[in-house]
Amino acid sequence: MLKSKHITLGLFFMLAILSVVSLFVGVIDLNLRTLLQGDIEHLEIFLISRLPRLLAILCTGVGMSVAGLIMQQLCMNKFVSPSTGATISSAQFGILLALLFMPSSSLWGRALFAFAAAILGTWAFVYFIQKIQFKDVVMVPLVGIMFGNIIGGVTSYLAYKFEMTQALSSWLVGHFSLVIKGRYEIVYLVLPLVVLAFIFAGHFNIVGMGRDFSQNLGVNYNIVLFFGISIAAMITASVVVVVGSISYIGLIVPNVVAMFKGDNIKGTLLDTALFGGIFVLVCDMIGRVLIAPYELPIELIVGIVGSIIFVALLFYRLKNGRRSIRLKPSGSGCNTAPVMQGGQCE
User: What angle do the packed helices 4-22 and 265-289 form, to 10 degrees?
Assistant: First the structure.
């Protein structure tokens, strides 16, 4: 039987190997020999560009995947994510406000505006969907997409009115080409936020069972809900400020992992983080080599791959709900073909 820990170890080693390969993919050829020999030019490229880019990619993949998993668990909907819950749009709106009212602000100043706007926007979305009496698996993300489009429309209007479109464009399309030492360190805020997600994973799991279930177990539903939403919003804002808008990561990665490991957030959080790093890293390398020496924005690659996976997930969830794929244990009279969780051996 394919054990859960084997999947986790496999993802870890795959991420480590891809991380090393990523350091040597780019317009300028780097190799391990010149780095070990102390070539100054190559060392500068490695330390100023390649290594910061890798760290930003890993933080983005891990952070956005964990943020999506938290939102899906707390909203009890597998199609809710930072891109379908108005979080990314709200963070972009916050950056625009910083550019309008504090044009000389630093990256940290813009990040504070993005944090506040992302939290408020995501809170508003969650509050709204809680007031909807009849909602299904597709209606909730559609409401989030419409809400996000409204915020995006207001952002675009203000940007055009005050001639800030060009200044805002860096945060409208996600890319890692401008990630260098000194301009990406804000994304490190993802790490303590992910640690908090691991610490409170059990509480998020309980709240994901519903208000009544949480109250019966003595968990304050509203506090945990808005605490988790705030963590997801701050993770998203940290990424948007540095990298820009990258859709689908928080939607695709948790669903793919849940198909094989179920919906227990404590059991899937680590695998979701690892697979998120792998997914973004692979998409980034594709963007770097596809039309080399030029580079495609990662938002384009993730959008193409993510939209295909999203359609497949949509049909899968509509047909099978929240059930996950499991491998039947060997020696139990079953073959080893994938079966749905809850299925029985004949």
Answer: 30
